[in-house]
Amino acid sequence: MSATNSDARRGWHSDDQTDPQAVLTALDDDACRAILEATAEESLTATEVSEQCDIPMSTAYRKVELLTEADLVEEQVRINTSGKHATEYRKCFDDVLVSIDDGNIEIEMTTPDADADTDAGASYAVADD
């Protein structure tokens, strides 16, 4: 099953660099799913993830790394006017389609509408902290 041609106009994309096993492993993890839910509407630092998801800091760092490697969250730098900068994470997909074609697992994702985010493509954010 391939959604590449017919669904491309609906935002589905397949990235050959995405590791299907990494995506499935991350989606099967309770803490990762909690992080995805917490970062769906706003970007969070690992400290904020730890607090909102009620997980230890070490777990938050491990899980956001797992999610980043699976291309399920994107990293950006939060630049504070105080000079302290922090990495923050945000969910970067809307839906995941898993298909099996001739024994190969394929992952396709829909991405949020770029027009909905005024800073689409920006790799940093500014905070006044």
UniProtKB/TrEMBL annotation:
Q: What is this protein called?
A: Helix-turn-helix domain-containing protein
Q: Which CDD domains match?
A: HTH_ARSR (cd00090)
Q: Which residues form the signal peptide?
A: none
One Pfam family from the record: HTH_20
Where is the stretch described as Disordered? Answer: 1-20
UniProt lists compositionally biased (Basic and acidic residues) regions at 7-16
The record's InterPro entries line, in alphabetical order, gives: ArsR-like_HTH, WH-like_DNA-bd_sf, WH_DNA-bd_sf
